[in-house]
Amino acid sequence: MEESSMQINALVIDAADPERLAAFWSELLGRPVVGRMGPYVWLQRERGLGLGFQRSDEPKSGKNRMHFDVTSPNPTAEQQRVEALGGRRLEEYATGGFLVMADPEGNEFCIIPEGPFELDDEGCADYLS
């Protein structure tokens, strides 16, 4: 395979209220809001990767085609913090064994353990059992 000079620079999330969503993710990830430009609100870069929120008039519909996996030494303890910040657990995904959460606008993300965990042949995780 040929080496590419392209790299992912930033992930941008459409948001009805970019300030609110940026505040949620800022608190969750410990990355302060560092900029605002036009319809965008940006969090501090970490390891070269930017995270931004862009105002969008279209509401989220359906399941995300891409989602974040965030790590924690104790995923179940983080669930309470996410809920206190305005997120919620998505019980409809519980049978997969992953801790699937949604931010205040319904964007899905998983909280996974920092270390390795097992998946069965169906792709179900075991870290919540």
Give the secondary structure arrangement, pairings included.
Blueprint: E1 10-15, H1 18-29, E2 33-37, E3 40-46, E4 49-55, E5 68-72, H2 75-84, E6 88-89, E7 99-102, E8 108-113
Parallel strand pairs: 1-4, 5-8
Antiparallel strand pairs: 2-3, 3-4, 6-7, 7-8
Describe this structure in words.
With 129 residues, the chain is an alpha/beta fold. It has two domains: 1-59, Signal recognition particle alu RNA binding heterodimer, srp9/1 (2-Layer Sandwich); 60-129, 2,3-Dihydroxybiphenyl 1,2-Dioxygenase, domain 1. It contains two helices and eight strands. A four-stranded mixed sheet has the order 1-4-3-2, covered by helices on one side. The chain has a four-stranded mixed sheet with strand order 5-8-7-6, with helices on one face. Strand 7 and strand 8 (108-113) form a beta hairpin. The chain is globular and about 45 Å long.
